Amino acid sequence: MKSVAVIGASLAGLYAARALRSQGFDGRLVIVGDECHGPYDRPPLSKGFLTGTTTDQGQLALADAEEIAELDAQWLLGTRATGLDTGGRTVLLDGGRSLTTDGVVLATGATPRLLPGPVPAGAHTLRTLDDAQALRANLSSSPVRVVVIGGGFIGAEVASSCAALGHDVTVVEAAPLPLVPQLGPAMAEICAALHADHGVTLLTGTGVARLHSGGIETRVTAVELSDGRLLPAEVVVIGIGVRPRTDWLTDSGLPLDDGVLCDAGCVTPLPAVVAVGDVARVNGVRAEHWTSATEQAAVAAQNLLAGSTVATHRSLPYFWSDQYGIRLQFAGRRLPTDTPRIVEGSPDDRSFLACYERDGRTTAVLALNRPRPFMRLRRELVNQALSA
Amino acid sequence: MIPVCPLADLPTGESVRIDTAPPIAVFHTDGQLYAIDDTCTHQDASLSDGWLEGCLVECPLHAASFDLRTGAATCLPARRAVRTHPVTVQDGMIYVHHAAEEGTAA
């Protein structure tokens, strides 16, 4: 393989590029990214970057100048990929350009879901550094009323950051309780209580009908709920999930279904095309997790260079969230029928360790502010998964 | 010189965090004591909560790894080293000698 194009210059793309080089690929490496920024870490964007503890953009950078030089890649930043030919050998780029390549890594990530209708000024999504800068600018003045639409991890983290900045925050969640799909009802209820601990209002069981805006700048003025209530707001954050960025692959012939379908080795039906990170549906599962993106990259690179699936991605799902000064960590594969049991600490103290159990066996583990025992159990689960 | 705790209170394989600014983590590995800056250089996480294996400690958040002897980051996602601090034991008490601030922290 003489040339590889990595489409996507974020976490998964960078880790794939690193993996290709560390596994001995010494051909031409082109990295295409539609943002004008080099690879940066997204997790701080909803936390320290909003509250001001991560002020320097350099702190977000995933690679320093030395490493960028060592990668010896050609970077096409501010460039959007618009298509992939059916053989997977030509990547079309905006502006009428194209790239011919022997191998392709698809790492285009995901894009926030939007509400129907136009997005007025003051209404934000939070995915990119530019998004975070725009939101931060809107939060820098005197206290405002913030409505966060969506009570998932992004919504909860943004609400926490806004509350820490002294704003008046309301979270609107369509489901009866946020985070139930991830944590199950009992643990989700404990996490939902964190909002009230910090003076944040949580409204559940109601969707959003539309955003109101007015004035000459058509700034957002209120959020109208589907039950008719009107929540005045100067800033609105829409955190209702993401969809994988596969639009540009529609004519590629690759199978797409909420992500690029690939096998357990991140390989698509075209052996010279692999997919990693949020855009990839690996063996039927699309994981929007930081750790999955980094782990998949190494596997995908190995298979791309081998020309077939010689390695598979078998690690255990892991994610974390920081909200209201509490670090939440979760690892494992939980079924809705698994029963959580608190094995250490107490929910009242917002510090505990819970194991999800099925037939007397631990399937997943959740910790609030208990990093040490969490890590021990996570390692045990990983070892179980690898030996299974 | 900062008193940490009696050596008897820090068995092999254990670690303790001291609330200096910035905080320092003290580790008792097999027969050795080490002190490093407690905060992972990748993202805000306490290395005293980390997984100790030989002379390496793994960050409890993203599995970055640091060499206790040198402070060097031995595995991604961390890229920058943590500072190391000398440790001594006097009369059964562990002391950390705060490394001089050399310029600004990286």
Automatic annotation (TrEMBL), chain B:
InterPro entries membership: Rieske_2Fe-2S, Rieske_2Fe-2S_sf
Q: Which UniProt keywords apply?
A: 2Fe-2S, Dioxygenase, Iron, Iron-sulfur, Metal-binding, Oxidoreductase
* E.C. code: 1.14.12.19
**Is this entry keyworded Manganese?**
no
EC top class, as a word: oxidoreductase
The membrane spanning regions, by residue number, are none
Which Pfam families does UniProt cross-reference here?
A: Rieske
| Residues in Rieske domain copies | 2-96
Q: Which CDD domains match?
A: Rieske_RO_ferredoxin
Kindly list the GO molecular function terms attached to this UniProt entry.
Answer: 3-phenylpropionate dioxygenase activity
Q: Which NCBIfam families match?
A: PRK09965.1
What's this protein's name? Bifunctional 3-phenylpropionate/cinnamic acid dioxygenase ferredoxin subunit
> What is the species of this protein?
Streptomyces mooreae
At the highest ranks, the source species' classification is: Bacteria, Bacillati, Actinomycetota, Actinomycetes, Kitasatosporales
